[in-house]
């Protein structure tokens, strides 16, 4: 499970706005809130936060798939 903490930074390093959205929306969900909470705390629109989070998750999923195909996925102990 701890390896999942690494994924946004690894796969979204060049898109800080997506990395921030993935992390903040995940945090919001962990306390039973959503992108509306993130928008209230950080500004902007909930739809924008949600779209950026979705895009970031898609990039992470593609990167994980590519790593699996290449045989370089790091396994957690």
Characterise the protein shown here.
This protein is mainly alpha-helical. The chain has one domain (6-70). Helix content is 74%, strand content 0%. It has four helices and no strands. α2 (16-30) packs across α4 (46-70) and α3 crosses α4 (46-70). The longest helix is centred in the last third of the chain and has 25 residues, at 46-70. The chain starts with a helix and ends in a 7-residue tail after the last helix. The mean pLDDT is 89.
Topology record:
Blueprint: H1 3-11, H2 16-30, H3 35-42, H4 46-70
Helix pairs in contact: 2-4, 3-4
Q: Tell me, rounded to a whole number, the average pLDDT.
A: 89
> Which residue ranges are poorly predicted, with pLDDT under 50 across at least 5 consecutive positions?
none
Number of domains: 1
**What is the end-to-end distance?**
9 Å
Kindly name the structural category.
mainly alpha
Instruction: Tell me the helix content.
Output: over 70%
Order of helices and strands: HHHH
Shape: elongated
Largest sheet: none
Summarize the entry for a quick read.
By secondary structure, the protein is mainly α. The chain is built from four helices and no strands.
List keywords for this structure.
77 residues; mainly alpha; 74% helix; elongated
């Amino acid at each position: 499970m701890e390896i999942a903490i690494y994924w946004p930074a690894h796969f979204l390093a060049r898109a800080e706005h997506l990395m921030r959205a993935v992390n903040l929306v995940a945090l919001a969900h962990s306390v039973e809130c959503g992108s509306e909470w993130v928008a209230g705390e950080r500004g902007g629109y909930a739809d924008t936060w949600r779209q950026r989070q979705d895009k970031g998750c898609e990039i992470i999923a593609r990167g994980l798939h590519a790593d699996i195909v290449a045989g370089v996925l790091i396994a957690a102990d």
